[in-house]
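ok trying this again, last paste got cut off
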Amino acid sequence: MSNEILAVLEYMEKEKAIPRADMIAAIVNAIKTAAQKGVNAGQELKIEIDPKSGKLKAWALLKVVDSVSNPKTEIHIEKAQALQSSVQLGDIIEREVDPAMLGRIAAQTARQTVMQKLRQFEKDRIYDDFKDMVGNIVTGTVRRRERGDIVVDLGKAEALLTSKEQVPGEEYQAGDRVRCILLEIESTPRGPEIILSRASSKFVRRLFELEVTEIADGTVKIESFAREPGYRTKISVSTTDPKVDPVGACVGARGARVKTIVRELNGEKIDIIPHHDDPQQFIIEALKPAVPRDMVFDEKITASP
């Protein structure tokens, strides 16, 4: 049993990043609870696990009395003084017991409880590890497809690229590397679920923030954004620095910056236009290369009642 416990401790510490002390506490509580429901029902136990060797020790906690009515919880003073000469009536002494005496049923129940604790540890750790990454781009490996959703391995946890957050026309096979935006962490009965997206406009916006330093430092601002995933993205940009061309900054030298983003989006078209406060001029820019023949604006302002 010591080897099994040690193997669990080492695996969870290295592979799941669960602290050994937390694991030991969970195992101790599980074994204690299971044992007290089995053949050791009603008995108070003390259990310790050596973090280095995985060796388990157990003690029964017994009250020193002059008349024993329950041998599982009490010990006669004469027997107690044979174990520890200084004990008095009413004291609690520890008598070591063979861990094997905890019973097979207790061990099975403990194993189930430990697995439940492990799942809870992992759920809590997933939330703590990823809660500050919402809105960031992450890279993972496609593991499998489940009812249209794609399960992506992020290293420390698995995430879902749901069918509605996938780009039409994109296909992924097990083992493929994929970049997505971490859209949100949903609370479900099974624990926190990491939701990824490649279809969200936030994904393309974040790509521009990573690729265009002028956007990242605030020199260029994305004023508006529209996207049809897999077909076209259109953004309008502005700047308060007269020395900076906001469209040119996003396109990059010989289109290097925008080409990098287009490759990531598997050829999705990207239109970058200068922002205009004048609606008519803004519409002309937004519709290019089409040229509107005529535009009529209703500038009537309806006052609120």
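PB: full thing came through this time. The longest strand covers residues 177-188.
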